[in-house]
Amino acid sequence: MLNASFKRLWEGVEMIPESAPLMCRMSALAATALTLSLAAQPVMAKAPKAAPASVSAAPATPEGPRRASAEERGLAARLDPLARAAFWGRESDLDPRDAEAAVGLAQALRAMGKYEDAAQAAQRVLITDPKSVEALLEVARAQVGRGQGFYAIEPARQAQALAPRDWRAPSLLGVAYDQASRPEEALAAHRLATSLAPENPAALCNLALFYASHGDAREAETLLRAAAAKPGATMAVRQNLALVLGLQGRFDEAEKLVRQDLPPEAVANNMAFLRAAAPGPAGPPRSWDSVRTAQ
User: Fold this and answer.
1) What is the pLDDT of residue 279?
2) Which of 43, 97, 205, 268 is exposed most, by the fewest CB atoms within 10 A?
């Protein structure tokens, strides 16, 4: 499986802090969104952060448990996915109509790979607020994360209709269409996302990975280099660039990028994967799609 460092930005799709609006897609080799690994367990660049003392369970009042304050909710974004799931699950239990808590729970569950549970948490918001853009996006992300892009299309379309200037919905639609084997619509959606947010590294990264998954490594490299140069570019953007370079057999360049963000054992795993996946001296370059199939 693909190392955790080679993944799409799902927030999103972890390929990035969950606070990010949309992870640039996980590598096409992993077939989305949202996290696969060469090793049995993902190799993380940094250990998960423990829950800050101020974000632990809010003390009970004489009237019973109280909801977390705005400050405590803001600090929750720093927690690892399991701790975030516990935090937002508690908040959601205290008030089932709390949309922020339900979306936060969905994001945390998705980061843990619990895509069906994440979709259900976001769907609960839509029962009372069917026009919640954040909940619609989370439903779509969860479907993409479980590899069911077809079922992500409708919620992503609804989110796009409600927020037509928001790049996240078309970028997510691009991933969903691609999973549903609708590449022309996928490319159009990705191009719309980059036209709405031309300076956003996640939108550029998603478009780049579309090209890479369809065998155009040169265009993917150009876009990923542009994304990596943008303010706010994350480790995931650099690691996806390393992946594209490595799959072209340019191992020295790829390894320099990998070493910027990852510990030695993760570098070794990633480079072993790339050397195994890259074309041999007698064969033509392997497309990302063929590598994905081989995996």
Assistant:
1) 73
2) 97
Tell me the whole-structure pTM to 2 decimals: 0.77
Alpha carbon separation from 141 to 96, 116, 144, 259, 290 (Å, rounded): 21, 11, 5, 29, 24
Query: What is the rounded average pLDDT of the residues 260-273?
Result: 92
Q: Report in angstroms the alpha-carbon separations of 267 from 38, 255, 287.
A: 11, 7, 23
What single letter denotes the amino acid at residue 60?
A
- pLDDT reported for residue 59: 53
Tens-digit pLDDT profile for residues 15-49: 333 333 333 443 333 322 222 222 222 333 344 44
Q: Which domains does the chain have, with CATH numbers?
A: 28-41+75-294 (1.25.40.10)
Under 8 Å between Cβ of 258 and 270: yes
Can you tell me the distance from the alpha carbon of 10 to that of 257, in angstroms, rounded to the nearest whole number? Answer: 20
Secondary structure of the chain in HEC code, one letter for each residue: CCCCCCCCCCCCCCCCCCCCCCCCCCCHHHCCCCCCCCCCCCCCCCCCCCCCHHHCCCCEECCEECCCCHHHHHHHCCCCHHHHHHHHHHHHHHCCCCHHHHHHHHHHHHHCCCHHHHHHHHHHHHHHCCCCHHHHHHHHHHHHHCCCCHHHHHHHHHHHHHCCCCCHHHHHHHHHHHHCCCHHHHHHHHHHHHHHCCCCHHHHHHHHHHHHHCCCHHHHHHHHHHHHCCCCCCHHHHHHHHHHHHHCCCHHHHHHHHHHHCCHHHHHHHHHHHHHHCCCCCCCCCCHHHHHHHC
List of residues 6+ apart from 214 with CB closer than 8 A: 183, 287, 288, 289
